[in-house]
Write a structure and sequence with these properties.
By secondary structure, the chain is an all-alpha fold. Helix content is 75%, strand content 0%.
Length: 350
């Protein structure tokens, strides 16, 4: 079902931008819509993860299937890097983003690299059986992508803290984006755990100097332990942002009342699901009942949240109201687009 929906919406998007190429130009220059470009490679990465685990194991698929997934992963890596670099370049050079209009949707292009790196952590151990050196290159590239994306996430969160301290919380349903930090931190922790586990299965490997790092018997244990500690630290940081997000939403509800249901409510599912996932995995890693019970309870809460959003989506879908932007989103988009047009006009003047 996931693959069918992915192919369907990909075909629709390709047809749309082929028939109306001007829409693509306007979309990549739009200060809000362009942020969602990275969701394409993220969705593809999820499908590759499922194919590597469930599909391959269920049907007993071998070398050809694994190599096909590996090639598709590299294609996804290229697209993810293009979305990451391209979107940030457009934000800096072709769009206007006033500080007071900043929301944590800015994180979306950055999360792309983190998600695809976690998929690489899933694929690498499978590749080891056919190409140990290829698996090591894959994991190394995953380390580089996480190392690039995670500091950018922290930079943007610093900007968001400044924005909230100077201008207060975002208004209306835009406050829902305060839950977004759970996504990159949780997915980074998951990716780093996978990287540590993959390296332990790959190393020692005759790669590099004869007495080099990759041939030492103690390296995999040290690397995996280091990765586990980093993942735990990221989980703690993620938990802090969860508390901040709950306080922000409580503040918004107390001051503005309940929000009407909108399509943006779906943005709550992925971050909470990632948080539940990494909590459960840490429970297995540390054999901790606290993490297991808390993670299971949070997973159930996330499922109930998904069920609520799904039912509400079906309920309002016939009216088409769900596809309309909220007043807050319209105001920010119109102001940003207006500022962007002004910048372009100034550049064209002699």
């Amino acid at each position: 079902m996931g693959l069918a929906l992915f192919l369907l919406f990909t075909a629709i998007s390709v047809a749309r931008y082929t028939l109306y190429p001007d829409i693509w130009h306007r979309m990549v220059h739009h200060p809000v819509q362009s942020l969602y470009l990275g969701t394409f490679p993220m969705a593809a990465a999820t499908l590759l993860t499922v194919s590597t685990t469930a599909v391959r194991e269920t049907f007993g698929l071998g070398r050809s299937f694994v190599y096909t997934l590996w090639v598709l992963w590299w294609v996804d890596v290229v697209i993810s890097i293009a979305c990451f670099c391209g979107t940030l370049h457009m934000m800096k050079g072709r769009q206007e983003h006033p500080l007071e209009s900043m929301t944590l949707r800015w994180l979306l292009p950055v999360v792309t690299l983190i998600v695809v790196s976690s998929t690489g952590g899933v694929i690498a151990p499978v590749i080891t059986a056919y190409s140990p050196s290829g698996a090591l290159i894959t994991v190394t590239f995953c380390v580089c992508m996480v190392s690039v994306a995670l500091p950018v996430v922290m930079m943007m969160l610093t900007i968001y803290l400044l924005r909230c301290m100077v201008y207060g919380y975002p208004q209306g349903s835009l406050i829902l984006s305060s839950i977004f930090p759970l996504g990159p931190f949780g997915q980074s922790a998951y990716a780093i755990l996978l990287i540590g586990s993959a390296l332990r299965s790959i190393i020692p490997e005759s790669f590099g100097d004869a007495q080099g790092l990759f041939q030492s018997a103690t390296t995999p244990i040290i690397v995996q332990t280091f990765c586990v500690m980093i993942a735990l630290a990221l989980w703690a940081f993620e938990t802090m942002w969860l508390v901040f997000a709950l306080l922000a939403m409580r503040h918004a509800v107390n001051n503005e009342g309940r929000f009407s249901f909108q399509l943006s409510f779906w943005g709550l599912i992925f971050p909470n699901g990632v948080y539940a996932n990494i909590t459960i995995i840490l429970g297995s890693t540390f054999s901790s009942n606290f993490f297991r019970v808390f993670g299971a309870a949070y997973a159930v809460a996330t499922f109930l949240l998904w069920l609520y959003v799904f039912v509400q989506t079906v309920r309002v879908l016939p009216s088409g109201r769900i596809f309309e932007s909220s007043p807050d989103e319209k105001e920010i988009a119109e102001e940003s687009v207006s500022n962007t047009v002004s910048i372009d006009a100034d550049k064209t003047q002699p």
